[in-house]
Design goal:
Layout (H helix, E strand, L loop, with lengths): L4 E4 L8 E5 L16 H4 L7 H4 L9 E5 L32 H6 L21 H30 L2 E9 L17 E4 L8 H13 L4 E3 L7 H6 L6 E9 L15 H18 L3
Helix pairs in contact: 5-7
The structure holds zinc ion.
Length: 279
Amino acid sequence: MTDAFRIHRPQGTPKSLVFDSPHSGSIYPDDFGHSIDRMILRRSEDAHVEELFSGVTDHGATLLHALFPRSYIDPNRNEDDIDVTMLDAEWPHAINPTSKTLERGVGLIWKDMKALGPIYDRKLSVAEVSQRIVEYWRPYHAALADLIDAAHASHGCVLHIDCHSMASMGDRTTEDGAVPRPDFVVSDREGTTCAPRILKCVVNYLRNCGFTVSINDPYKGFELVRRHGRPAEGRHSLQIEVNRGLYMDEETLSKKPNFVIMQKVLSGLAAVLLTEAEY
Ligand SMILES: [Zn+2]
């Protein structure tokens, strides 16, 4: 079995708050077989997001993060979100590709680095895609589901925060086009994955810290919040995108000096959610 993820647990009894960072992994498996330059490929990482949110465990939250890169297999897609034109043989299971896959080449297995070019100069085998699902995608999903279920069983409710970062500018292949992004985008799939008061608590906290925050625009939240957000059952799920320009150099992926300040802001978010969100 491969090493797909890490879990950082709080001291003492975990609170009903689970963070996950599905896209910050940077351990590139030897069998990836991409043809695009590695440094260009690395721009797809939500680099350092697990470290940015690491302080949440000080407040009793649990943090899960993927170790593998999202360009290898993307945990924020369903396992049937496959572009069969990438394969060298017929896929033996049902497929259900989304528009992200068909129109932008960023499905379960990424085809393109958006505007920067194709990732492979070859077709992928059914066996290697199946192996990525079994050894990376499913263990990550099982770990997240276990943490959320355990918190729900202990507390009768759970809040899951799915943590990401976004390029400071969109491009011609993104939903919003080539425009600057706000500091944060907070998403609940148009009010379906989280109680409105919790979303409001997050947005108010970030705005009070002096940041610009957009809600469900340009991101509405994708597979992980869709899968886990069932507010009527006391299972709340929110997606947060942090603007990478706030904390790192987007060309070199190196952290900016104010990284520590951003860590404090985000660990403070966990504290505020636990005291004020009433979920
Ligand atoms: Zn992401």
